[in-house]
Amino acid sequence: MKYVEKEIERVDFAPKTCTWTSPLGDKYFLKIPNTVYPPREDTNLLAKTLMNFNSGDGKKLLEIGCGTGVISILANTLGWQVTGCDINPLAVATSRGLAEKYNIDNINFLEGGIDPKSNQSSRIFGNGPFDLILWNLPYLEKPNKNELLGPLEDASLSNIGGKKLHEILLKKIENENCLSKDGFVILIHNDNGPGRMLSSECRKLGWSSRCIKNEVLEDGEKLYSTIIWKPWSSAEKIVLDEVDSTNTYLLESSFPTGSYAIAKKQTKGRGQRKNNWVHFKGGWCGSWIIPLEASSPQIIQAKAALAVIESIAALNCNELPTFDYLAMAKFLQNKISIKWPNDLVIDNKKFSGILCESKTKGEKTVCVVGIGCNLKNENGAIESKFPNASSLENLIKISEDQWTKILHASMASKFENKNYLSGEDDGEIIKKWWLSMENYNKNHFILIDSEKYEIKRLLEGGELSLFSANQDSNHETICETSYNLEWEQKLFD
Fold it and tell me: What is the rounded CA–CA span in Å between residue 413 and residue 423?
C-alpha cells in the first residue's frame, strides 16, 4: 500500500508552470500536472524536425504521446490536420486545455496508444491513413521488480509490455494500413542500446531510415531524429530467372525510379575495367534505378557500398555502423572494408562489386547501380576458382529473399529523394567512405606504372589523393579511375 499511497501523493502535487517557445516564435504558457512530460530538449528536436516539412497543406498528422500538446499545436499552425494521442489521461486533458486556451478547436486529442488489443487504439488509428506520424519515444530503462517509480517514469513506461515500441508501431501500420503510400514516421530517440539499434531493426522489417537531425545534451547524452518510410512506393520489383545483365535490363527499361531487377542467373555481368562478374551458385545479383544525381560515379558507388555494409550490420544484429564514426570503426575492424572505388572485401578477399552506369535515350537519362554479392560459397566453388574471392557466409547466413528485402531498404535509405526528404550529403558520404577504406588501405600499396603510392585522402568527388611511397618524393598525384592501377599487399616485419 505504501507504493500506492506514495504515487497518489505525487499525483496530488501542485502542477508546474513553464513557457515554451516554438520555432515560429510563438510563446505558450503551460500548466503541467506532475505525471505529464514537460517540453524538454527532445521536444525541441522534434519541433525542429517538423519544421523541415514546412506546410502540411491539410495532410493528416498523428502525434503519439502528445504530452502537453505543444508539438500538435505547432503542427496545426503549420497546416496539418492533427490527431494527438497519449496513454496518460492527464496529458490528454493538458493538451485539450492548452488548445482551448489558445482558441485552437480543430485538433482531435484522444486517450490511448499503439496497443493493438485496445479499442482506443483502433479509434485513434482509424482517423488515418496519416501522412506523417510523430513519436518522441520513451527511452527509460525497464524498472527493477518492486522499484518505486516517479510519476513521469510511470507515465512513460506504461503500455510497453517489454516489447519494442517502434516494432509494434511499424507492424500496426502494415497490418492496418494507417500510413499513406508516401507517408513518413519520425521517431525521437537517444543513443542508448535500444536507441542505437532502432535503424537496424527497421531495416530488418523492410523500412528505410535516415537520421536527419541530432543534438548533444549538456550531460553528453545524444538525441536523434530518425525518419522512417517504406522504400520507393511506386517502384517495380522484377525477379528474372536469367538475364544477360540486370544493369542492361534496367537501362533499356522505362520503370520508375527505385525499381530493381534481380536475376537468379546473370550471363554477362560486368564489373570495373570491363571485367566480367562471374555468377556462381550462391551468388546474388541485382540492380536499381536511382535518381539522377550531381554526384560523381565514385560517390554513387560509395553510397551503394555503404548500403551493403549497413545491410550486413543489421542482419548481424549490429547497430548501423554509420550511426556514428566510432560505431562504424568498431564494426569494420577486421571484418569489412571497401577497396577503392567499388569492391567490398572480407579479410582482403572480395565478396561484392558495384557498378554505376547511365544511358541517355532522347531527353531521358537513366542511372542504374548494379550490385553483385556472393551470399554463399556452395561447396567451396568460389574460392576454388578465385582464391582472392570470398562470401558473406563468413559473417552471416541469409536467404536471397531476406537479402533483397533489407538491401532494398538500405538502398532507398541512401538514395531516395521524395517530398520533404533529401538525399544524404556527399560530404558525409566521403567521411564514411574514407573510414570504411582504412583497413584495406593500411595493408596495401597502389601501383601505377610500377611505382608504389600511399593513399593520402579522398577528394570531394571521390578521387584519390596519392603520394609516392618513395621517401624522396612528396608530390601529390590525383587518381580518378581504377583502370590504370593495381594493388600490392604490404609486407610487415
Answer: 8
